[in-house]
Amino acid sequence: MYLNMGSIPNRYLVGFKNLLRSIECKGIASVLGINYFARGYLQPRDHIRYISHMVLGRDLLDNTLNLVPSLIPLHVDIKEDSPEYQVLEKKNQRIVDNRPQSGSVSEAIEYFDQTATLLDKLRAVQKQLREYIREGVNDSLREARKSEAVCAGILVLVCVVSPIIIALVRNAVNTIQVYARNLSEKARELEYEKELSDSLLYQMLPASVAKQLKQTQQVPAEFFASVTVYFSDIVGFTAIAAVSTPYQVISFLNSVYKLFDERIECYDVYKIETIGDSYMVASGLPVRNGNKHATEIASMALELLEATSMCRLPHRPDQALCMRSGIHTGPCVAGIVGTKMPRYCLFGDTINTASRMESTGEPMRIQISEDVKRALDKTGLFITTPRGVVDVKGKGEMTTYWLEGRNGPSPVRPTAASLDCTPSFLARIHSKGRSSPRYQPNVRNH
């Protein structure tokens, strides 16, 4: 059992020690005093010892009374109720003076009796202080027993309650883990669906415009000082559609435009829209690319023309595909039109002129305006030949040119993929969904 000694005032213990030493010092001094009265004087060395012990005994007694004030009344009673105390003090003063006198055994015996009486009274004070200490120890023991009983009760309670708490905590942890797994799975599914929706959105709008539209809910129209616009059209599409079923027409257009979409991803261009058999692409917007837009569109147009020669109608493999293309460079305004099904549209004379370059062109040839020719001549990378003056509806007579090819080898581009009816953006999404570990369908055992 642990005894808390802090409940016993330390001053009691220190006071008890000082009082014990005080009685001891006074006893030694009394022996030297008896020697003085028996001989009539003290040797200098004994005299010094007497004074030092008397002073030390008085100081220790005073210190005890300061530490334990409850002992002061007892000490006062000793001084007031003992006539011998005053007589003894006078004799002590005679010893301190150490004046030679004739020795007296009877006086020495009397001094001894008086000193012994005083020491007995001091021992009574010491006994009282011992009682104080004993009471403190007993209180500490009682507190220790109470603490021991409380600790034992707490220990028993903990032993009884711990299994219940452990079971509850384990159940809570299991519930949290199940919830966390479900939440993680839902988060993966949500991330996959977000990627799916973003991918679909980026097919309809430019990525930069779509992000701005999601953040601010509005995208103001923007003016572009110089862009290059490309139009293409399938020659004889009306005749092809007349001899084909609607499903065959859709499959045919989808296979052609899928090939075009895969090819244009290698260039800094943006596909604006497809209307029937018309294919429209622009460069220099919505992200400006300096003076590169003309060369990007020209390179793309040559590659699309080459890819067209490889195409065959799935239901009429013996019939070749012919395409007519036109390009023009100039300013335009672009912005989001509509809220129900928003589209990124271009407006301006540049778009009309590019469309006229296509409609007045010839099969399997790329007609360009004089503005495009000047932009391409600055690079020295392309071969153009003059077509002459062409009467363009709404523009009058215009000097146009044919884009024949590139100077030197063409840049290495990916080969054409096999024709099928799956849109390219859906193929990418499905491929990503199958390969990504973030989305796995739930499989439950019934």
TrEMBL record:
It is found in: Membrane. Gene3D superfamilies: 6.10.250.780, Nucleotide cyclase (3.30.70.1230). One of its GO terms (molecular function) is GTP binding. GO terms for biological process: intracellular signal transduction; receptor guanylyl cyclase signaling pathway. The chain crosses the membrane at residues 149-169. It is an enzyme of class 4 (lyase). Its EC number is 4.6.1.2. It holds the Pfam family NIT. Residues 228-358 form the Guanylate cyclase domain. SMART domains: CYCc (SM00044). GO terms for cellular component: plasma membrane. It is a single-pass type I membrane protein. Keywords: cGMP biosynthesis, Glycoprotein, GTP-binding, Lyase, Membrane, Nucleotide-binding, Receptor, Signal, Transmembrane, Transmembrane helix. Its main location: membrane. Belongs to the adenylyl cyclase class-4/guanylyl cyclase family. PANTHER family: GUANYLATE CYCLASE, GUANYLYL CYCLASE. This is guanylate cyclase. It comes from Euphydryas editha. The lineage of its organism: Eukaryota, Metazoa, Ecdysozoa, Arthropoda, Hexapoda.
